[in-house]
Write a structure and sequence with these properties.
This protein is mainly alpha-helical and 483 residues long. Helix content is 57%, strand content 5%. The chain has a five-stranded mixed sheet. Helix 2 packs antiparallel against helix 3, helix 3 packs antiparallel against helix 13 and helix 5 packs antiparallel against helix 12.
Length: 483
């Protein structure tokens, strides 16, 4: 929006630290109209949620029966993860909406044999691919299901699927060409920071743990859906569409496991799977006859309503309040703007909000999301004293030190003094053990004015907050020594 192109830093090589080109472009377009970017991000998420609910009401209601459409729409209207994240500002709800509609329209070809369904599905899967790269995997799974289960001859199916794939590619390829030319990478930098070089065994264990935690939480869509699917199979009532849908659910479940799950609240990574689980569940309920008699339909609806109510956790994941790291990042940015020279290089972990609100500076993202050198580190050492957290495994103390940033805000969003023996992210773990770090940098502390009620909203934030940072010793700037 400021004429510098899609990049995170003002200086240095551009890095694709965002995962979703379409989400970014939509927010930028709305921002050009004068809308604040935060409002624009929430508007995109909320609109995608409305689109998803309306589509499910229509699609399930017309392909199965009206009460099933109402039930599927109600499940997604009340879905706590979607409610949290349609106001959370990230791309997951937009991705879920486009991916769900694309998959279901593509799979409809299995019942209808109509090329138009595949072409619409291909276009929407292409838009989903422009939102997040894992859509390419899901497009391959859904098109393969159509090839295996479709009603036409194998030659006709192959030709139809090829046309659908070409439409999807026509949407995705222009950005991929731009990505290669501008960013010099075939995938977003977030892939390299979160997946590349992280041991597969560790990711799988983490992904399975993520799944098990989700399965034990209401509204138990995965567990109930699995039991209903088993019952449908045992009673031999599964249709080819169901098999294709189960293949897509399994495909995305495998992706979540191999990616290692996610660290963010409200099961963010499960959001694209929830509509597919809801459709599979209501289809199974219809096939088993649970929605035929009024009494059984009421009982099922009440049970699902109760489970949906149980999932709401406003005291833990209240979408009214921004993320605590983001809030502190803004206050840190205010200090930076008022005290540090424009154009300074700052190494930091909270690379979102601080960099956004203090955008006259340049940054080194020590977790690698916006730093190519750190993101490409492979293999990643798994030291016993490092914090092993999904999406936060990358770091490189030597790389950061070699670039001699003016300031380093280590560990917490408001900084910390580093000590050997304390668990840190990988960059800080290596910095504190490097003799050059103590020679080049000194720890400084400055009061960080924050509202008194902030610690009441966020218990993890101290009532009296100081910004602790490391300043390069050759800088002629004030520094109150931090112990």
């Amino acid at each position: 929006m400021n004429g510098l192109g899609p990049r995170w830093n003002r200086a240095g090589v551009p890095v694709e630290g965002f995962t979703s080109p379409l989400h970014m472009l939509l927010i930028a377009a709305l921002g050009k109209t004068g809308l604040s970017l935060m409002t624009a991000a929430r508007l995109v998420g909320f609109s995608a949620h409305v689109l998803l609910v309306c589509f499910l009401f229509w699609f399930v209601g017309t392909t199965i029966q009206p009460i099933a459409g109402t039930l599927a729409a109600a499940l997604m209207t009340s879905s706590w993860p979607i409610l949290v994240w349609d106001l959370g500002g990230l791309d997951e709800v937009l991705f879920a909406s486009l991916l769900t509609i694309g998959i279901l329209m593509t799979l409809r070809y299995i019942d209808s044999g109509l090329l138009s369904h595949l072409l619409i599905g291909g276009g929407l899967l292409g838009l989903a691919g422009l939102t997040r790269p894992e859509a390419s995997w899901m497009a391959a799974v859904s098109l393969a299901a159509c090839l295996a289960l479709g009603p036409n001859t194998i030659r006709q199916r192959f030709r139809h699927i090829l046309l659908s794939g070409c439409i999807a590619l026509a949407i995705v390829v222009p950005w991929e060409i731009f990505r290669l030319v501008y960013f010099h990478a075939p995938l977003p930098n977030t892939y390299y920071a979160k997946v590349y070089g992280i041991p597969l065994g560790w990711r799988i264990r983490s992904g399975i743990e993520y799944w098990l935690i989700y399965a034990r939480k209401p509204p138990y869509l995965a567990v109930i859906g699995f039991l209903v699917a088993i019952a449908v199979l045992l009673r031999r009532r599964a249709a080819p569409f169901d098999v294709g849908l189960w293949a897509c659910i399994l495909g995305y479940a495998v992706y979540v496991v191999t990616a290692g799950g996610d660290h963010m609240m409200a099961f963010r990574f499960m959001i694209p799977l929830l509509p597919l689980l809801a459709v599979s569940l209501v289809r199974g309920l219809v096939q088993l006859g649970f929605l035929e008699a009024p009494l059984s339909a009421v009982i099922v609806s009440v049970l699902l309503f109760v489970f949906s109510v149980l999932q709401v956790r406003p005291t833990v994941e209240n979408p009214i309040w921004p993320d605590s790291a983001g809030v502190i990042g803004e206050y840190v940015a205010r200090y930076i703007n008022g005290h540090w020279p424009a154009g300074s290089w700052i190494a930091i972990n909270t690379a979102g909000s601080t960099a956004y609100f203090a955008d006259e500076m340049n940054y080194i993202d020590m977790l690698g999301l916006n730093d190519r050198a750190i993101a490409l580190r492979r293999p990643v050492p798994l030291y016993s004293d490092t914090v092993r957290r999904v999406g936060h495994m990358k770091g490189d103390g030597a790389s950061v030190l070699s670039r001699r940033p003016d300031f380093i805000i280590a560990s917490l969003p408001w900084g910390d003094v580093l000590h050997i023996g304390v668990p840190y992210y990988l960059t800080e773990y290596e910095l504190v053990r490097n003799p050059e770090f103590a020679k080049l940098y000194k720890a400084c502390v400055a009061p960080l004015p924050t509202p008194a009620e902030l610690s009441n909203i966020y218990p993890e934030i101290p009532a009296r907050l100081n910004l602790t940072f490391y300043q390069r010793r050759d800088l002629q700037l004030p520094c109150t020594h931090a112990e």
